[in-house]
Amino acid sequence: MTDFLIAASLFLIALTVDSPKLRCFPIAIDPSPFPKRSKIAIFDCSACAIQEVLRFYKCSNESGASGNHLWKRFPPDIQEILIVLFHSQYKPLEKSRKKFPVPIYQSKVGNTFRDWTKNWFYSLLQKIKKESPFKLFHACSVIIKYDLNCTLFLLPHLVVHALLDSTEIEKNEICTELLTVLRHSEQSSTIDDLCHLSSQIVFSVVDHLTKWIHHYQNEISLKTSGRSLGPRLSQDKSFHSINICLSSIPQILLAKSAFACQAYARSLMHLEKHLKEFPDQLGNSISFIQVLFTYS
């Protein structure tokens, strides 16, 4: 998780607008459409988010402190920005639990891309029970409604932790959300922004889950000293939680959804995985292959 600190903090810094409090300069939020009070809220939320992430990891500029090795990984210009937040006193507001529809996509709280990503983020956050990951993502959540880039960066990580820590019903809700987006793009005759951008998010989540699986398998392999992974993984709850979600998403659905979004290389990749898993489906896929190769 230490690399996540660096990435998350830099991302939060990158979305912080020019503020006398933070002496920041990188821009990801354009404050011009917001009224003056909203601009101040953006400044404060950005500062609060960075402050809470630093505190979560006990990051410190004091030599010998437990978090000093993390501090040293930041370049000097970033340290200059962060150091003022060691003594800041921002307090994130506690959000009351909210019941979200399943799926959120295309519902009243998910009929625009920004609303869908924001509310899906909050829904996933409510599924996390363990204190440490909840604190980390809750710290970042204060900026979610202002910055889409931060939301998109955090979502794949949040999905992993939600799957690892949720009930079976909640896991099914996450899978339903992913499948709903993919089925919509697969079946749509025209792809609007909501459909196209949401599908890209799902592709990113699938990629992240796949990388997590490979990394986890490698870790287990090192621990088992070359012994068969099958028995160990079959009893591993973490592996099962992620793998069952990935397995619930058909590769052919990913291929057709990617094709609809004009992501032809991705479509071909998922089609190859589908045919590798189901070689007897080659005959049924000939027409799709022909169309795909005309665009590839």
Automatic annotation (TrEMBL):
Q: Which domain of life is it from?
A: Eukaryota
Q: What keywords were assigned to this record?
A: DNA damage, Kinase, Nucleus, Serine/threonine-protein kinase, Signal, Transferase
* Documented EC number(s): 2.7.11.1
| GO MF, one annotated term | protein serine/threonine kinase activity
Q: Which GO terms describe its biological process?
A: DNA damage checkpoint signaling; DNA repair; telomere maintenance
Subcellular localization(s) per the UniProt record: Nucleus
State the Pfam families in the record. Answer: M-HEAT_ATR
Give all residue intervals belonging to the Serine/threonine-protein kinase ATR-like M-HEAT region domain: 103-280
- GO terms for cellular component: chromosome; nucleus
- Its predominant location is nucleus
Q: Which InterPro entries match?
A: ATR-like_M-HEAT, DDR_Repair_Kinase
Q: What is the residue range of the signal peptide feature? A: 1-24
Recorded protein name is non-specific serine/threonine protein kinase
**From which organism does this entry originate?**
Trichonephila clavipes
